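Worked example (supplementary).
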Amino acid sequence: MSRLTYVAKRFLLAIPVVWLGTTMTWFIIFMGPIDPATRLLSQGQTRNPAAYRAAQEQLGLNTPPLEHYLEYMTNLLTFDLGQTFLLYQGSSVNALILDFLPRTLWLGFWSVLIAVLIGVPLGFYAGMRSNTVADYLASFGGIVWRAMPNFWLAIMLLALLGSLQGMIGVSWQQFLVPIDAISGSPDMSRIGTVDGFLAATKKVLPAAIVLGSASMGNEMRIGRTAVLEVRNEDFVDMAKAKGVSDRALVWKHVLRNALVPLVPIITSEAFLLIGGSVLVETVFGINGIGWLFYRAAIQGDLPLVGTLMYVFILMIVGINLIQDLLYTVIDPRVGLEGA
Amino acid sequence: MSDAEPLLAVEDLRTVFHTDREEIHAVDGVSFEIRAGETVGLVGESGSGKSVTARSILGLVDSPGAIEEGSIRYRGEELTDDSWDRHRGDIAIVFQDPGSALNPVYTVGNQIREALKIHQDLRGAAARDRAVELLEDVGIPDAATRVGEYPHQLSGGMQQRAVIAMALACDPDLLVCDEPTTALDVTIQAQILDLLAELQREEDLAILFITHDMGVIEDATDRVNVIYAGEVVERAPTDALFENPQHPYTRALLRSIPGRTPPDETLPTIEGEVPTPTGPATVCRFAPRCPDAFGACVEVHPDQQDVSEGGDDRSAACLLHDDRYPNEMGTGDGTDGGGPDERSVAAAAENTNYGAVDHGGAPPETGVAGDVNGQGAAGGVDDVGDEGGGEI
Amino acid sequence: MAGATSDRERASTVRPTGSTALVWAGAGVALFALEAGALATFLTGMVADLFAFVPPLGPAQPAVATLAEWANAAQSAAREVPTLLSRETIPNGGYWNGRRWVGTFLGLEPALAWAVRVALVYGYAFACAGWAILGYRLYRREIRPTDWSPRDDVVDRFRSHTWGKFGLLVVFMFVVMAVFAPALGPTTVEQNMRESYSHEFSYWNSDAGEVQTTLVGQANLQSQSTGTSSRVMPFTYDDYNRYHPFGTLPTGRDLFTFIATGSRISLIIGVLSVGLSALLAASLALVAAYYRGRVDLGMVLLSDAVMAMPQLLLLIMLTQVLAETWIGGIYSGAFVLALIFAGTGWTYMWRSVRGPALQVAQRQWVDAARSFGQKPRVIMRRHMLPYITGYLLIYGSMTLGGAIIAIAGLSFLGLGVSPPTPEWGRAINLGQDYVTTGSWHISLIPGLLITIVVTGFNALGDGVRDAIDPQSDSAGGAAAGRGGGA
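After joint prediction of all chains, the assembly is encoded as:
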């Protein structure tokens, strides 16, 4: 099938996935052992029947389940997300999301970028110089790095940056681009300007390194294997016999083919990133959507939790689609055997 | 034959692979010559070292293997001291599996143009046009469309043609074909062979034809080198070889071609497998399987003996032709001579590895215990236009 | 090759002459006897817990109560049996009486006594492992009628895989730590943490020049590690001459005991969840592979949908939702954690064994079985399952690493295992404010341990994979071990 058909098919498959995921979420929250209304009310209020009824009404819990479900799904689909109950009480959920989401996206973007920009070349380097000391060191480093819990790494890194001044006399805050504090949310409002862009990047950089560290090791490993396999292919010998320069041999022939198995890895790491962002955001004090989810869950604002889960589902499915798109660009053979 | 300087002169080539477990002497003292415009065949079973020879000539041998001794001279210039870069394009190669010889993520045209840019300094529209021309030259219909397609969109036969076009784009003097038709089906085989013959005539190409298929050798080559376990055991003009083989191995090979045996007789085979040489040769490697082996065969290494007759330039590495070691068994024509005995097998077992061995670092061909029938069965069949069977 | 024929002749019908096997069996009995008491205590304890836990069953109530009583009595009796590796036999919690150490093993100082006990524990564990390996070798060489089986190749390949062996070593030591946790720590969770104000101990008060007693809880208050000025570092004694191999927590409690006990929870949750995941993933994969078509498509959709929800977030959501149910009470939430983890993590393993399952389903012996009317369930169990167990092992060990990190992450957030049950993530959380101070050990040590253990599991998975399928892509696709991202 043509590549376009392939992408269209993947897109169509994505829809039931979103539907199923959201349904499961709804089920857990509204049909689960907890009464969302009780959770919303504070200790004192739970005894108050009027307050309880009002909460129920707000959540739509006094309507029959099916009706509630349909209305819930429609609301989500049209992004009519209502207002919050507990967290930042009374604010529009839409506005809340629009405020918090960009920070997480920014963090995620840089995490993936760093993981790819460091992990992949390292892997390629190890693959081209396989079985040398450099290879073993790089591989071992990648393995250990991958086994570190990211929240622990976050704490260590934060401590390191904080004590940089004491150790080598350079303050991380003032280094190159000045930022207001070592941790905290990046200022997304000034992204458009060069200054703002740099500042926001620097602010999120340590968190991005931590978040990307898990995938970095993975990409390194797979890049290495990919390079090793491609190097042994006949067409590389063929190109060499044709007289292609060593550099072109590596870049045009080896690496381009080695990228093919990497694409699904890169994007599947994005899933981990999104989930793992909760921990990193908490440690670094970045008020992103992961952190919001965590606060909402702890405080019992279950409807918000459900809505945020829906947002996450959309993000992940979206990334999947991007991956499929990338695949068709990188590998012309795609669509031959079907997914 | 002509006295002109040979285009390619391989002398005592030794290529060794150093794996964790052992050393594999895949090519162990191979010598032959190719003159301009002639087609030379290199024939042997799987595991005999043919592909490694081809890769050595092209300078494509990578660790854990390396050319350790010998010389490869192209037009008099030594290649083994890393001079391949200067001669890229003068010698081109066509591999066995066209599907893996083409880079799957670039179009066929792109890969041809790559060669054109390096060797003929063509770019842009000129390169595109020339690429289409080349594809037409190799007989691909609708070349203008094909040039923009990816390898996986072409059939096996067309892929091989494209590979040949890519090789031609380098404007080579010598084309090394490593089993170019083995992976293709029989009807396509014939077409590719015809194509190669035609190209040779038009471009005055020399061809080194590597195969295990005796029938192809018979039809397509002028001279033949028979290779066994990393050594050339016989060399002769093709007609002379088929008419009157001088080495027991060659004789056995020819006997095992299906067409040559009367239909009601059992097809003769060569018992055993090609050994994998793990050390320099100290005895005759074929002795354990040789029907004409005698005592000296497992004690001394046979040198090339000149067995020329008439004006032919022939040689065979066999003690039967070496006057220093008279044959105790008497006859040397080998059909019903005594078989190898236990003593010769045991003695010959040093420095060679009998039986299937798992070779991690060696190229895929080495170490695959080939069945002689496998190669014999393909030869002598009508596809190459022979009458098949009986005398030539 | 030449020796093969003679071996074959030798091993065909010979049963063990007895001597080697008897010696081996004898050694086993000896090893067992050393720790028989501990094993009995553990088993009876488990039974007692089970009975104590079973919700009231109405008419059966009195019967259950008596059974529980019996179990408890049995446990107390078992406790009396002396075992080698217990705190009673090799105590390290003595005191200095001005001239010498009283109450410690052989009068050694507590640090040495503790070290002796730890060395003995690990020595015993390695002895048991060695005994098992020798038994296997014995079996393979002399008892087993077949000379060679395909599994032998797998074992041999693993034997020469250094990285895999390293992983096995690390995992083994981790498991030993979890199993022997009560014996390994310098003190116990009960004494030091849970009931610290109900336990007294004696110590040498150097100011007063005499032996005094105090409550553990009080002593803890004086041994807190909060920054640079007041801290108890690893491998030091506190003011009460109690030895702390890993130092103390900000609450003054012993970090080593905390970690050793925490390893239990991590291991239990990890193994439980991976086991459940494997069960789920294997069943679904086999069913999907056997029926193919729409069933497969449906499974793909289901797993995609579950994977579309980030696992950590699902964990958070579900722990909150299930926290107050009766399941959430089991083992301080560990059980429900394992369930949730299995329920959300099966997709990864399913994805990984789906390939091999599909391949097996296409084999001709499956068709053959189908053709003579064999029931699908039996086909799946007998003809398909054995071929994917290898892959389950590989991906299971890699998922374990991820599970440990995820659980630690949840505890770090305060969501996972509820206090006071120790868990490594919580230790990291407790210490995070002191990382830049003198009490950096609190966060550093658990983090390092997690890294080492996860690396070990990943290495083990690598080793098993290379042993089972040496040609497989050593980092193929989804196969790469779970990383630090929770």
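Two points are worth noting when inspecting this output. The mean pLDDT of chain C is 79. Chain C touches chain A through 57 residues (CB under 8 Å).
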